[in-house]
Each structure stands twice: as structure tokens, then as C-alpha cells.
Amino acid sequence: MSQPSGGRAPGTRIYSWSCPTVMSPGEKLDPIPDSFILQPPVFHPVVPYVTTIFGGLHAGKMVVLQGVVPLDAHRFQVDFQCGCSLCPRPDIAFHFNPRFHTTKPHVICNTLHGGRWQREARWPHLALRRGSSFLILFLFVNEEVKVSVNGQHFLHFRYRLPLSHVDTLGIFGDILVEAVGFLNINPFVEGSREYPAGHEVPCSHALPQGLSPGQVIIVRGLVLQEPKHFTVSLRDQAAHAPVTLRASFADRTLAWISRWGQKKLISAPFLFYPQRFFEVLLLFQEGGLKLALNGQGLGATSMNQQALEQLRELRISGSVQLYCVHS
């Protein structure tokens, strides 16, 4: 698993405004707390697909499933399992099973324990359609899992087995999976709304106290169909932007931009793709900040503590739909 900071291989580049440097083999970076570690997303897996959920499930964790229902689909299932053995069959804490072949398409949810299915729960009015794309969010909270389909709450299912026993995701049946994402922090909007209505872009987020060591900025969203650019900038009281991260889709480059317009390319794979999820983490510490994208550490940039404390605004613009902005 790629972690946002700790455990980099020797030779990872660390970026500053002046010039790039290279880490020495013995150099260590303070790790980002475990709560910020992101399991890398999986794109276009072959179904049936079974994978380990890094760290298992816990309250606040979310699994994102993006794909298409084939025109001739009968059914598919998403199973959150307690292990991955074939014989005996593992317990399934949450079985999510859309069915399209009946006169009234619906979803069946259930739990498999000790080789026996429990009492099934049925939800009618299925929001999924044959031949259509979908976005399903599974949010695991203290007592139940909540599921939204295409941005609308669809169902909730109370746990019948301990959530801590779940460590495996299985996807089976008639489904074309485009992406599976794993998020370790609840990205839902604080307050009365459970599901993110999204933030309009450009988006401005106030930083009334500036930034201090240990603080983390989280930006999560979806890249639009025909993206051009994506920019995250931090501005001070004079509206100057001493820190700007810019992704350009035309030449597929990611770069730091200084307040004077100086551009420093980040030598790393370009991890933004149309109609795919992304997560940007900026971890602030003494001497600067570290960047991670989709769980992969992409280096750091230097910045003195006084400049960090004078920052007052986070501004986001570009070809994205935002789901979570947190600092």
C-alpha cells in the first residue's frame, strides 16, 4: 500500500521553491496518521473480483463503486466479507444484491453467518437501470451501513455481525466495474445532510487561524468528463497565493506554482483521470507541507512557519465536482 508520507523508497524527490533535492537512503519522514492513509483505488477490475480492505472496516469508512449495468444484466452482488476462503464459505456481514430480471427490479440485503443466510431485507424502486452508469457509496457508521445510488440515499442496513470482522470486498455477477475507491475518513458534509451535495467550483474555504503543524487539508471529488485543469491554491491576507498546486490535463502534468508564477513540475505519474475520483491531502508541518494524491506520496515543498500562519483562504477551481473540502 502506498502511504501519503512514510515508507518512501530511497530517491523520492522532495520539492521546494528553490530547487529539487533527493532524499538520502537513511532519511525518514514523519508519517501521516493512520486515519489519513488511503487504500489506492482500483480501476477496471475483472469480475468476479475479490480484494482485501486495508485495515478492515470501521465506523466512518466509505467504499465507492463506479460502473455500468450491462443491458442484459440479471443480477450482481457486492459482499463485505469476513475473510476470503473458498471452503468453508466466509461470513458475509453485508450482502448487497440488485436484481434486474424480475418484473419489479429490487435490491436484496442480507447476512451470511455460519454458512446460513439470515432474514433478507428487500428494497423496491431500484435506482439502477440496465445499460446505465452508476455511482454507489457505502458508508459504514456505528450501527449500520448507509447506501446511496447516484447521489441519492437508497437504503440503510443494521449490522448483524461485528463490523471489525470485515476485511474483504467481493464483487460478483453482471456488472462492469470502472473504479473501486476506499476512503478512511467520513467525507460526508457535517451537519444535517448526510450525503454530500457537492461544492460549487470555484470554491473558497476560509482559514481564519492560518495553518499549523499537524493540520491536514483534504479535497475529494470527481474529475469531469472533458477536463482542462484543476487548481488548489492557498492565499494569504493580501490575496497572494504562495502555494498553488496545478494539474494540467492537456500535457498531463502536475506542478507547484510559486506566488511569482515560477513552475516546478512534480516528477510523478499523473493520477487524475476523467470521470474518476481523486483525493488530495496536504499535511502541514514545520518547514513546509507534504502532498499525497490518491494515497500516493508525491513529495513536499518548503515554507516557513510565519507564511503558514498568514494563510487565510483555500481556493479550488477547475474541471472537477467537489464532494469534500476539509481543513
From TrEMBL:
GO biological process, one term: apoptotic process
SUPFAM superfamilies found in the cross-reference section: Concanavalin A-like lectins/glucanases (SSF49899)
Matches recorded under Gene3D superfamilies: 2.60.120.200
Pfam families registered for this protein in UniProt: Gal-bind_lectin
Leader sequence residues: none
InterPro entries to which the protein is assigned, alphabetical: ConA-like_dom_sf (IPR013320), Galectin-like (IPR044156), Galectin_CRD (IPR001079)
One of the record's GO cellular component terms: nucleus
Keyword list, A-Z: Apoptosis, Lectin, Nucleus, Repeat
Localization terms from the record: Nucleus
CDD domains: GLECT
Annotated GO MF terms: carbohydrate binding
Alphabetized PROSITE patterns for the sequence: GALECTIN
Domain Galectin: 49-183, 203-327
Role according to the record: Binds lactose. May participate in the apoptosis of adipocytes.
PANTHER family: GALECTIN, GALECTIN-12
Full protein name: Galectin
